[in-house]
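Batch job 17 of 40 flagged for manual review because the log was empty.
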Amino acid sequence: MRKTAIQLFFKISMRAVTFFALFLLVSNTAYGQAVEKSIAQRDKPWGIGTSITYPLAEIYMMQASYSPWGSGEILGGAAYQNWKNDQGRASAYTVLLGYRQYVWRGLHTEMELWPAYNPFLSSIDGKTYAGFELWMSLRIGYRFDFQLAGNDIFILTQPGLGFGVARENPWPEKGKGDGAVFEPQVILGIKL
């Protein structure tokens, strides 16, 4: 029997809940209140960036950020995932939603949700398994700011963990190899 996307969404594993609770505990410390104003600049609250490491895994993303206050940024964006593994090839059209909390200078934690529509082509049986899925990434990183040709440029170095939270219409053997995945992330961007 095929499960609906809503049923799968609410079957969040305890691992996901644990990671999320740990992220909230770390990111909402008092240190975030003392972040230097240069990190989340009031005169340039917007930023746009792209990952320079994800294309190695055939994931192409653009991320926008907005800083309504001095110690954090709201994240949004889009991605196309075309990765391949021993079970088949993804073709996921993805929306990015997240939050970045600065705790000291450029040091920050980040949580990002990647809801996607992924018609996955299975190499096991040759069928396409179209469905919605949700991926969560938790990162810790550092932001480096510098000037280049009169523009405010930044580089985010963010190692993190990513894991699947829900998947509608899973392909055969989808559960094999599931678990947390190390995500080496470097984003190059500009403040606007």
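Reviewer: the log was empty due to a logging misconfiguration, but the result itself is present. The helical segments are 5-9, 14-27. Unflagging and moving on to job 18.
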